[in-house]
Write a structure and sequence with these properties.
Strand content: 15-25%
Helix content: 25-40%
Number of strands: 9
Distance between the termini: 21 Å
Strand order of the largest sheet: 1-9-8-7-4-2-3
Radius of gyration: 15 Å
């Protein structure tokens, strides 16, 4: 079927081994958060916290509102989920201060698009990948706005020559049609079977 063909093509052209199609970017983010939680639950590890960044926009679902911690969108929906640690963007020191044995994942937009265009530096993206590798943390990229050719490469992470464990994509992938996808490695998606 066409969906399988498209999924195979996405895997061929990216880091991913698995693709789950959604109707929106928010659903792709939710799927990625479930991938993170299921991975650590399968491993029986007490890794529950997800680091996110100030200025991010991950969507309007409850988990996305909790992740971005933007009062403009979350007012009236409190209390938010408590597992998110929102830190300054492009800040190595803030990242280091917030990494601990309970850190499950780092969720970042390679290019923030809420209120302007703010790219993560390529060095910061490389640093995050390194931190994830050294601390057994999943790297989850939100490329809902920046993906599918909008940065000059299929996905923005390619500029930093890194690979995530999980990626949410939408908007450009559907060219106006309501379509999103959560891409993941086989390892990261082990708990979703």
């Amino acid at each position: 079927n066409t969906q399988e063909i498209f999924a195979k093509e996405l895997c061929k052209k990216t880091f991913a081994d698995k693709v789950f199609f959604t109707n929106s970017g928010a659903e792709a983010i939710e799927c990625g958060l479930k991938v993170v939680k299921s991975y650590w639950n399968l491993k029986n590890k007490n890794k529950k916290n997800i680091i996110t960044f100030k200025g991010a926009f991950h969507g309007r679902t409850f988990a996305a509102l909790s992740a971005q911690k933007n009062k403009k969108y979350s007012e009236g929906f409190t209390p938010l989920l408590s597992c998110f640690r929102n830190i300054p963007f492009n800040d190595d020191q803030a990242l280091n201060k917030n990494i601990n044995k309970e850190t499950a994942a780092i969720l970042i937009e390679p290019i923030q698009g809420e209120g302007g265009i703010k790219p993560a530096t390529l060095q910061f993206l490389k640093y995050i990948r390194d931190v994830c590798d050294k601390n057994n943390i999943l790297l989850f990229l939100d490329e809902v706005q920046s993906g599918f050719g909008r940065s000059g490469k299929l996905y923005s992470y390619e500029w930093a020559k890194i690979k995530p464990d999980i990626l949410a994509t939408a908007k450009g992938i559907g060219s106006g049609f309501p379509l999103g996808a959560c891409l993941a490695t086989t390892e990261a998606s082990r708990g979703m079977i």
